[in-house]
Design goal:
Length: 627
């Protein structure tokens, strides 16, 4: 039996969860489809998801096709959040997905989140199948969506159905020229067709299966997830693709990869693992957290689970009692000199401060926050040394709001809370600045010697110390330690980014009466603190906005954006009395904007906000400090 891991991705409200619900119904996994409005879906079962009507964590659903009794393929669907604030969940799914289904709201067309999903999948070389959803609505013209897709993909997408609803791949025999794009990418298939045109239907299926995995084709299906239109055709297409799927070979020493953590209502803390080979109970393994051994294995589908003593290769299973495993950790069959992770840490740009109302609750609050951050890799906590307050960092305003609401499940007592703030940093803005660092002690009788160095822009947000001269390891450590101590908190109170220290030469003192590494460290610290203050600027993340609003609210929304110093790129009329605004602004200036938008549009405005922070996307904060 083939196993295929299928990630479902889309912008907000495009219908991901509804699609999965319909798939479960069509395959007999549930008796009737649940709805988001009623809070009865299989994949969105957390209280926060039900109350807000959004997905905040990824969900795995096991679906046997065509049925559980005689399956030819096991689909492991990964339903992912649409909101960018929960992108850590989506990133983890990308680690294990074989292909991605990207849903597009056929009425609203491509959105910024659609483009982001395409970029993520293509960067990881994951083939994409598109599904135009909500085709049951009247007055839909899919032409614009197809044209936009072609522009994004730089290749014409292949439509797999006709206006009358006929599904091309269901034909046993055909002479329909609409099938030709499925095989024209391959000269061998084209030659076979020219020799025997009667084989067109079979060759089109073969071309579809082979061309998809080589990313030669970007198929487009369509229908209505809510009504079930096109869902069986989607499953048929996936089954056909599974016949041509060849899993990537992993190194022999790799047993699998952990990619998701969850608090299960019955199993407690569990970790999801995709095995690279058969994985039995009581399997010994090594990871970055050391030597471990699994206990009971479970196969989990949404909230349902069953115990197993052996997981097949690539059959996702979960284990309890492995709290040290993190998403992205590789599991090995033997000790390694270098342990890898498939996931890079994400900078937490939004922050809030907490402290318990009663000091005796501090330890309990801290432990509750540790559980919350264990569940969500997009969160981090630390204690501020100056105040003793706990800082909770996250990926967005909504992300922190949801996380604080979830915290009440684990910590029901009262705690004090600051307003949400956006992280700020100091960015080195000079190309090169020369420096000579020296420190003397005991009435200038003892000298550190002279460190000749340059402070150089890294042209990114990275930091590094490089040595162009031979000095002792002890002195290298002293200089490096001094540099990272200074850049941890600059003169403006923020972490310094984008600065490299290049040490050209070191002139030792004439008389060395003692170990001078501590003096060298002091010299470098003082020298850096003298140079840095006048050569940095305060920066923060930049947000790209896409706002869909009723035309009646357009003037008010544009005015609100102007007050927040937003730059409007364009305003596009999308019909049906609605307009789409594209803009960008300092993320800091947009705090609270989502609530303002809801009030202005009576809840009918849809905001998609992507906060970017790297060497190409950032905002220089020149306004009066709002803090």
């Amino acid at each position: 039996m083939q196993i295929l891991n299928v990630g479902i991705f889309a912008h907000i409200d495009a219908g991901k969860t509804t699609l999965l619900e319909r798939i479960l119904f069509e395959t007999g996994m549930i008796r009737r489809p649940g709805t988001i409005e009623e809070g009865t879906t299989e994949s969105d079962y957390l209280q926060e998801e039900i109350e807000r009507g959004i997905s905040i964590q990824s969900t795995i659903a096991r679906v046997f096709w065509p049925n559980a009794k005689t399956p030819t393929v096991l689909f492991q669907f990964l339903d992912n959040p649409g909101h960018l604030d929960f992108q850590s969940q989506t990133s983890a799914s990308l680690v294990v997905a074989d292909l991605g289904i990207i849903l597009i709201d056929a009425y609203e067309g491509l959105k910024s989140q659609t483009l982001q999903n395409v970029e993520w999948l293509r960067k990881r070389k994951i083939p994409i199948l598109f599904f135009l959803n909500k085709l049951d609505r009247k007055g839909i013209d899919i032409t614009d969506s197809l044209v936009d897709l072609e522009a994004v993909l730089e290749k014409e997408p292949v439509l797999l159905w006709k206006d009358g609803g006929e599904f091309f791949l269901s034909q046993e025999r055909s002479s329909d020229p609409s099938l030709l794009p499925l095989l024209e990418w391959d000269s061998g298939l084209s030659e076979r067709y020219l020799k025997n045109p009667d084989l067109l239907a079979d060759l089109a299926k073969e071309g579809f299966g082979k061309g998809f995995w080589k990313e030669e084709l970007f198929p487009v299906l369509g229908g209505s997830a809510l009504q079930g239109d096109g869902v069986r055709e989607l499953l048929t297409s996936l089954e056909l693709l599974s016949r041509y799927f060849q899993p990537t070979n992993r190194p022999d020493e790799e047993l699998g990869i952990a990619f998701k953590r969850e608090l299960h209502p019955d199993l407690g803390r569990i970790v999801y693992i995709l095995p690279a080979k058969e994985f039995p109970q009581n399997q010994e393994f090594w990871s970055i957290s050391g030597r471990n051994k699994t206990d009971v294995l479970y196969l989990v589908s949404t909230r349902d689970f069953e115990e197993t003593d052996l997981a097949k290769s690539r059959e996702i299973f979960v284990v309890a009692g492995q709290d040290s495993l993190k998403p992205g950790d590789i599991l090995y069959s033997s000790p390694q000199s270098n342990y890898r992770s498939e996931l890079q840490p994400v900078r937490k740009q939004f922050q809030v401060l907490l402290e318990p109302e009663i000091d005796e609750d501090r330890d309990s609050l801290w432990e509750s926050l540790r559980l919350l951050t264990w569940l969500d890799e997009g969160l981090e906590i630390k204690i501020l040394p100056d105040t003793g307050q706990i800082q909770l960092g996250g990926l967005g305003e909504l992300h922190l709001e949801v996380s604080l609401s979830r915290l009440k499940e684990f910590f029901p007592r009262k705690f004090n809370l600051s307003a949400i703030k956006v992280a700020r940093f100091e960015l080195w803005k000079k190309m090169v600045k020369q420096g000579e660092f020296q420190h003397t002690a005991f009435d200038q009788k003892i000298s550190s010697g002279l460190v000749h160095a340059s402070l150089v822009s890294s042209h990114s947000f990275s930091r590094e110390v490089r040595f162009e001269t031979k000095i002792t390891e002890t002195l290298e450590e002293a200089i490096t330690s001094a540099f990272y101590e200074v850049v941890a908190k600059g003169s403006k109170g923020e972490e310094i980014l984008g600065l490299d220290l290049i040490v050209h030469r070191y002139d030792p003192p004439d008389h060395q009466w003692m170990e001078i590494s501590s003096l060298v460290k002091v010299a470098v610290i003082k020298g850096l603190k003298d140079i840095i203050p006048d050569n940095t600027e305060v920066v923060g993340p930049l947000s790209l906005l896409e706002i869909l609003i009723p035309d009646s609210s357009l003037g008010d929304v544009l005015g609100a954006l102007s007050k927040r110093n937003a730059k409007i790129h364009d305003v596009v009329s999308v019909g049906d009395g609605k307009s789409l605004i594209h803009a960008k602004a300092s993320t800091e200036n947009l705090l609270g904007f989502a609530s303002v938008l809801r009030n202005m549009t009576q809840g009918r405005g849809v905001l998609s906000l992507d906060s970017l922070f790297d060497s190409e996307h950032y905002y220089v904060i020149t306004l009066v400090d709002s803090r």
